[in-house]
Amino acid sequence: MKNTDKSHIDAKKSAGPNFNDKLGLPGQYPYTRGIHPRMYQERLWTMRQYAGSGNAHQTNRLFRYLLAQGQTGLSVAFDLPTQLGYDSDSEYGRDEAGNVGVAIDSIADLRILFNKIPLDKVSVSMTINAPAFILMAMYMVLAQEQGVEKNALRGTIQNDILKEYVARGAYIFPPEPSLRLAADLIEYCSQECRSFNPISISGYHMREAGCTAAQEIGFTFANAIEYINRILRRGIGIDRFAPKLSFFFAAHNNFLEEVAKFRAARRLWARLMAERFKASNLDSMKLKFHTQTAGSTLTAQQPENNIARVALQALSAVLGGTQSLHTNSFDEALSLPSKKAATIALRTQQIIAHETGMTDVIDPLGGAYYIEELTDTIEKQALEYIDQIEKMGGIICAIEEGYLQRQIHEASYAHMLNIEQGRQVVVGVNKFNQNSTSKFKSYSNVDSDNDKQIKRLANLRAKRDERKVAESIRRIAETVMTDENLMPVALEAVANNCTIGEICGVLRENIGEYTERLSF
Amino acid sequence: MSTKRIKVLIAKIGLDGHDRGAKLLCRYLRDAGMEVIYTGLRQTSTSIVRIAVQEDVDLIGISILSGAHKTLIASLMDELISNDIEIPVIVGGIVPEKDVQFLMAKGVKKIYSPGTSLTQIHKDIECYAGQPTRQSD
C-alpha cells in the first residue's frame, strides 16, 4: 500500500549521502546506513513481541492470538525455573513456575507450545541462556516430528551467557563450562541448522541495568569477540559462522543518540569483522539485530504516558535500521502486560510501519551533521571500551574483576541522582506529576495454574522409559567431561523425555554452579 | 531517634535477577550514612531471616520483580512472625495493586513501585527502623 499522506518528493528515489568509506550506500560496506540496499522498501522488520505466561497451553493460545493480530514472528518468554534449569515440581518451581514466562520442563511441553504453529513458516526467538542447548535440542527434535528439516528452521536462540554474569543474573554454571556449552550450540548449528541464529549477543540487559549507549555497544562487542575467539579456536573459519551471529539492543529515550547508536554499531561491527577477524564473506560483516524498547524508562505513575515513550523509542529503532522489534506494553511498571496493553504495543509498530511513511526511505537521518557526529563519537567510545577490556586481559577477566558491573552501576547511579535532584525530567514522576497516587487499574495476569503443570510432569515421569532416561543422563555426565560436542547427546536426552531439571541437575553435579562474586 | 546508626538489609528473594534498583538503594542509603548489607541474588526467606538476625538489622528491604511476591514474601513474613522476630519489612518492585493489600495484611510496612524517589524511601526507613513487624497493638 502506497502512503499518500506526504509531499511530492519520491522517497524511494532519494539515495541520500554517500560519504564513501565512512557511510557507504545502504547495503554497502561499512553498512552505516543499513545492511540491505532497499531495507524496509523490500521487507519490513519482523514484529516480534516477547510473550509467555503460565503453562504451554496458555502460551500457545497467546502466540496464536498475537499471530492473528498481525505479529510476524514469535518470541518465547520462559519462566525463571526453566531459565535456571529447575523443573516445575522442584522447590523453586513450585514458587515461581509460569510467573514471568512459560514453564517448559520437557519436550512434551514444547510440543504443546507450538501446537498448530508450523516451524518452517514462523521464525521463533527463544530467550534462554544457561540451558540454551537443551531448548535448542528440544526445538530440533520437535521440528523433526513436524517433518521440518533442521536447515529450514528460522529464528534465534539467545544463548549469550556472558551478559548474565554482568547484568541479567540468569546463570547456572561457572563461565568456562558455560562458554563451552554456548560454543557447542553455535558449532552444531553452523553445520546442521544453518538458517538459525545460534546466539543473540545482547546489550539490552546491560543497558537496562543502567549503562550508557556507548557502553552498551562496547560491552556487547567485547562479549561477541570472546565467543568468536572460542569458535575460531575450534578450527571453524570465521565466514562459516559469523553470518549467523545476531545481536540485541535497547531503544532508549534519547532519540537521536539512539538512532546514531544503531548506525555506529553497524559500522564498528563491519570494521571489526573485516579488519580484526579478516572475514571475507560480506554477510559476516553485516550487523543484524533485534531491538526492544527500554522497559526501565516506563513509569508506574501516569502509565498511559508510556505509550508515547514506547512509540518514540520504537521509531528510533526503525530509523536505526533494526531487523526485528519488540515494543513494550504501557502497563509493565505495574504488572505483567495485559492483553489490551500488549495489543496497543503491537499496534504502535504497525502504525510506524504502515502510516508514517518511514519505511519508504532508507536511513533518512544519514548525512545530518548532528547524527553523523554522534555516530562517530559513539563508535569511537565503544571501541575504547573494547580496547580497555582487552587491556584488562579480555572479557572474562573484566567480568571477574567487576569492571563492567562497576561501570554500569556508576552510570545508573549518576542517572538516578540526576532524576532525584531534578536535573533529568521524567514526566509524571519528578515533574508534571499530579499529586495523587495513580489509581490505574492494574490488570491481573494469567493465573499460572501450576498444579496442572506439575500433574503433566508427573504423568510424563510415570509413562516414559526410565531405562532410556538414566542412560541419557549418564551419557550427558560422561560427555560433558570430554571435549566432544554435547549437542548430539542432548538431542538424544530430550527425545527420551529427560527434563531440563534432570539435565541441568547432572551438569550441576559435574561442572559446578556459579555464585555471584559481590563486588558491591 | 537515637544516635545509633541505622542498619539495613537489602535482599533479592527467589530467582529474579533484576538488581539495578536494589543496588541503587544500597548505595544511596550508604551515602546517606546508613549501614547497609546487600545479600546478592537468589536468596530464600530462610536465608534472609538468618542474615537479618545474625546482623541484627533494623529493617529488611526486599526487591522483587519476578511476580512471585505473593508466595515468597508471604513465606518471609510467616517466618519472621513464627520466630517472633520483630524487624520491619519494606518491598520494592512490580507488585499489582490487588497484591499490595494482601502483602500489607501480612505485615509489610510499605510497597514501592518503580520510579519511587529514593529520598522518600530513605525518609521512610528512618521512620520504620526499629518499629515492630506488626503494627504495635
Summarize the structure in words:
The complex is a heterodimer of chains A (520) and B (137). By secondary structure, chain A is α/β, with parallel strands linked by helices. Chain A folds into two domains: 35-420, TIM Barrel; 458-511, no CATH class. Chain A has 23 helices and ten strands. In chain A, strand 9, helix 15 and strand 10 form a beta-alpha-beta unit. With 137 residues, chain B is an alpha/beta fold. Chain B has a five-stranded parallel β-sheet, sandwiched between helices. In chain B, strand 3 (59-64), helix 3 (69-82) and strand 4 form a beta-alpha-beta unit. Chains A and B meet through helix 4, helix 5 and helix 19 of A and helix 1 of B.
Summarize the entry for a quick read.
The complex is a heterodimer of chains A (520) and B (137). With 520 residues, chain A is an alpha/beta fold. Chain A is built from 23 helices and 10 strands.
Primary descriptors:
heterodimer, A: 520 residues, alpha/beta, TIM Barrel, 2 domains, five-stranded parallel beta sheet, 50% helix, 7% strand, B: 137 residues, Rossmann fold, 5 helices, 42% helix, globular
Shape of chain B: globular
As a percent range, the share of strand residues of chain A is: 5-15%
Task: Bin the helical content of chain A.
Answer: 40-55%
Structural class of chain A: alpha/beta
The CATH architecture name of the largest domain in chain A reads Alpha-Beta Barrel
User: How is the biggest beta sheet of chain A arranged?
Assistant: 5 strands, parallel
Number of DSSP helices of chain A? 23
CATH architecture group name of chain B: 3-Layer(aba) Sandwich
The CATH class of the largest domain in chain A: Alpha Beta
Number of spatially distinct domains of chain B: 1
Strand order of the largest sheet of chain A: 1-10-9-8-7
Distance between the termini of chain B: 21 Å
How far is the N terminus from the C terminus of chain A?
A: 55 Å
Q: How many strands of chain A?
A: 10
Which strand order do you get reading across the main beta sheet of chain B?
A: 2-1-3-4-5
CATH superfamily of the largest domain in chain A: Methylmalonyl-CoA mutase
Number of strands of chain B: 5
CATH topology of the largest domain in chain A: TIM Barrel
